[in-house]
Amino acid sequence: MNKETTPWNPPVADSMSSAVEASMYNSIQAILRQAASSCNKGMLRWTLHKKVETHPSNSVSLVRVLVKELEKVERLDYKMHVIPLLHTLNYVIIQSSHIPCNLFQRVYECFKRLLTLPEPYCTIALRYMRSIKMEQITPAPSPTITSSTGALYQRRVIAEQSLRNKHFPQQERVFVFADPAVFSGPLWQAVRADLVLTSPQSDILARRVLLHTLQAGLVKACHGPILTQALEDLGEDVEKYFQEVVLAVEQSIENGEAGRDQYLTRLQHIYSDILTSANQDPIAGGSLSNTPLPSPEIQFHLWTNEEELWNELVNFTLNISTSERNSMYQEEEEEDVSKRVSHLSVDSGIEKDLSDMGEREQRNPFTRSRSPCFRGRMKPEDKMALVQENIKGPTSSTPLPKEEGNHTARIVMMGDDRVLGRLAKVYHSIRKREAKHLILTKRVNLQIYYIPVTDEPIVNSPESTSQVGDRLSLASFLGRVDPWYESNIISLGAMIPKLAGTQSSHSRSSEPNHFLVDVLSYYLRCGLQPVHFTLYSVKISVSGQTGSPVDDVFVSHLDAEFPESKTLRENLRQERSSRRRTRKTLGTCGVVVSVNYSKVSLSKQEVVQGMSVMTCGVGISAISPNETEGLDFLTVNFDSTNPRCCTEIRTQNIKIRILEDKTFTVCLDKDCRRKYTHVQSIEISPCLDPGYCLQTSSKSKFSVGEERESGLSKYMCKILPLPINTFTGINH
Questions:
Q1: CB 623 within 8 A of CB 473
Q2: Which residue has the higher pLDDT, 586 or 166?
Q3: What are phi and psi of 433, to 5 degrees?
Q4: How far apart, in whole angstroms, are the C-alpha atoms of residue 132 and residue 99?
Q5: How far apart are CA 688 and CA 538, in angstroms?
Q6: What is the predicted pLDDT for the residue at 110?
Q7: Distance in Å from the first CA to the final CA of the chain
Q8: What are the DSSP calls for 77-129, one per residue?
Q9: Quick one: pLDDT band at residue 538, thresholds 50, 70, 90?
Q10: In contact, 148 and 137? CB cutoff 8 Å
Q11: pLDDT over 50 at 603, yes or no
Q12: Residues 231, 211: contact at Cβ < 8 Å?
C-alpha cells in the first residue's frame, strides 16, 4: 500500500489511482509546454480544475503531481513554471476536502523552500504557505490520516456570499464595469447572462459549508451522502449548526496545535447532533459528497456614468456598517431579553411570548442583507455625511468592532485602454476624497482587476498613427510581465466578443456558459499581485478660458493633433501611393511648438532642457515596449511628414506650448470622450498622491518658503500609482 494512500481506499485501487495520476501529469505537462498557445493553456487549466470539481477524489492525485513538478522546478531552476504550478496547486487545495496530512506537510515544505527564490516567487509562496498552515491540522494523528480544517473553503464562501455570522464578519463584493464603447447591446446582454448567475439561497450555502467542513475534518468518520440528506431535512434549522461550525473553525485557527483534539471532538458532536436532529442514525465511513466552490456574487454594470463606481463603493460600505450595527443591537437585545426573562415566572405565559418574538426577529438570521442604497441623485458631501453617520452610529456603550480594511471590494474593468483611462480619473477622485475624509478605504480594501476586451480587429498599418492595437497597450504590457495572465485573462478577453454570436445561435432557455465566470473567479481568487502603473497629471490651457488650467489624468497615452496635420498626412499618403514627393511637401513639416522637459541623468539629477520643434502631431506614451525598462518615464514622439524632422525624447515632466497663433486638440488614453479642443499648452508630470499633497500643504502653512517633506509625508508614497492585479505582479 502506498504510504500516501488513504486508509479507506483498498490497495486494489492503486492501479486506478496511477491511471488518474498519469492523466493529471499529462494535463500539467500540456499546460507547461512552451509550444502551446496562450489560449490553449488557459482552456487546459480550466478543464483541469473542472475535472477535479466533478470528481473530488482526483484532487489527491493532482496535488501529488503538482508537488512533484514544483520539486523538479526547484532542482532544475525552471522559474517560468513556478507561477502556474503555485496558483494551480493552491486552487486545488481550496476546493479539496481530503488531502493526506503527509501530503499537506510535503506541500508546506515545498513552499518553504521556495522562499529562497527572488520576488515575486517568494511572496506568493509565503502567502500560500500561510494558507496551508491554516488548513492543516497539526500535529497529525497519523501521517496517512486525511484531515484538515476546511477554513480556506469556509472563509471564501462566507466572504464572497456575504453570509451573516458572528465569528467571521469579513465580506467581499465583486463589481464588474464594462465600457459601453466596447460592449454593444447584444454583447453586453450575453456577458451579463454569463456572469450574473442566480446565487444559491443562504441556507443552501450554509449546508454546503457544513458539509465541506465536516467532511474535511472528520473524513473517515463522516458519511457524506447521509450527512447531505440530514442537512436538507433540517431546512432553516441548519443555521444553528452553521454558526457552531464557523465558531469551531475560527477558534481552531486561533488555538493552533493546542486545540486540535478539541476541534475534532466538537466536529464529531456537531455531526452527531445533525444526524440525530434529522432522525438519521450516526454512521461512520462512506463516500464523500461533492461540494463545489460556488462562484462569487457578481454585480455587472455597463459603465455609462463614472459616478456609478463611487456610488457602489459607498453602498457597500453602508451595507457593511448597517449589518455590524444590526448585529451589535441584536446581541444587546438578546442580552436584555434574557435578563427580563430571568425575572419572569415560568407559568406566566410571557416567557413563551418573548421567545416567539425572538424567533420571529431572528428568522433565517444568516440571510444576506441589503441596506437601502442610492443611485447618484445625492450630492457627494451628503453621501459622505451619510456614510460617516452609519459608521459611527448613535452613542452606545458597545463600540463597533475594529475591522479596518477587513472587507474587500473587487473592481473588475472590462474594455481596452480607454476604460482604464476612465478608471484612473475616478481612482484619483476617490483618493482625493479619501485624503480629506478617510472613510471608505478605512473600512474597505480596494482591489482592481482588468480583463482586456476590444470590439475591433487589430490593424498594424505603418500609415496609421492611431492603430486599434494601441488600445490594448496596457494589456500587452501585462501579458509580457505575466505570461500566466496572458494565458488565462488576455485569452479570455479575446473570446468575449464571440459570446454574442454564440448565444444568439442557442435558445434562450439553454443553461449559461460557466467558462467566463469560472475564469473570472480564478482570477479574483489567485490574482493578488499588483502591477503599478504610474498616473500622469496634465494641466490643459484652453484658448479663451480664464482662470486655472483644466486638470486631468491619464495612464497610457496622450495624443496631440494640429488642424494642419490631417491635410499634410493625407497629401503624404497620396504621394506615397503615386511614388512621388513634391518639394512643397518636403519643406512642410508642421507647426512650431516650444518644448520644456526634464532629462533624468544616471545620477538621478534632473536637467531642464528646452527646444523648439516643428511637428504635425505629438504622441506621448507611458507604456514601455520593453517590460524590463519599468513604468516611470514617458516616451514622447514628435511626428513629422519629413522623417528627418521626427524627434523622440524620454522624460517624466514636459510642457508643450504652440508658438503660432493656433491651437491643437488633446485626446487622453485614446478615448474620444476625453478630448479637449482649442488647446494652447499642456503641462505633464507624475500625478502626486492626494494624501501626500494634503500632508505637505498642511505643513507648509506653518513654514515660509519652499515645501519640504516632514511628518507623515516623509513615509508616504509621493506618486499615485494605479494598481492592477495579476498573477505575478511587479515590485513597486
A1: yes
A2: 166
A3: -65, -40
A4: 11
A5: 11
A6: 94
A7: 50
A8: T-GGGHHHHHHHHHHHHHH-S--BHHHHHHHHHHHHHGGGS-TTHHHHHHHHH
A9: very high
A10: yes
A11: yes
A12: yes
Nearest-angstrom CA–CA distance, 269 and 262: 11
Q: Which of 46, 47, 58, 43 is nearest to 13 (CA)?
A: 58
Between CA 155 and CA 170 the distance in angstroms is 8
Residue 417 buriedness (CB in 10 A; 0-12 / 13-18 / 19+): buried
Cα–Cα distance between 354 and 590 in angstroms, integer?
85
pLDDT greater than 60 at residue 607: yes
* Residues 398/327, Cβ–Cβ less than 8 Å: no
DSSP one-letter string for 625-671: SSGGG-SS-EEEEEE-SSGGG-EEEEES-EEEEE-SS--EEEEETTE
Helices (H), strands (E): how many in the chain? 25, 17
Q: By the 8 A CB rule, do 271 and 241 touch?
A: no
Cα 208–211–213 angle (5° rounding)?
Answer: 105
One-letter amino acid at 677 equals T
pLDDT, residue 566, reads 65
Tens of pLDDT along 102-157?
A: 898 899 999 999 999 999 999 999 999 999 988 886 555 555 555 688 899 999 99
Give the distance from CA 387 to its chain's centroid: 24
Q: Which residue, among 720, 721, 593, 723, has the nearest Cα to 645 in the 3D structure? A: 593
Mean pLDDT, the chain, rounded, equals 79
CB-count burial class (<10 Å; 0-12, 13-18, 19+) for 625: exposed
Q: Which helix (H) or strand (E) holds 63?
A: helix 59-76
Contacts of 604 (CB under 8 A, 6+ apart): none
Short-list 54, 66, 83, CA closest to 24 = 66
SS3 label, residue 394:
coil
Write out pLDDT tens, residues 441-451: 788 999 999 99
Cα 61 from chain centre: 29
pTM: 0.85
- For the purposes of burial, counting CB atoms within 10 Å of the CB of 326, is it exposed (0-12), middle (13-18) or buried (19 or more)? middle
Q: Which of 167, 163, 90 is nearest to 133 (CA)?
A: 90
Inter-residue contact 653 to 684 (CB < 8 Å): yes
Q: Could you tell me if 252 and 190 are in contact, meaning their C-beta atoms sit under 8 angstroms apart?
A: no
CA distance 498 to 496: 5
* C-alpha gyration radius of the chain: 30
The residue type at 58: N
Record the cell numbers describing residue 306, joined without a space.
Answer: 463614472
More confident residue, 85 or 14: 85
What whole-number distance in Å separates Cα of residue 393 and Cα of residue 377? Answer: 23
Answer whether the bond into residue 139 is a cis peptide, omega within 30°. Answer: yes
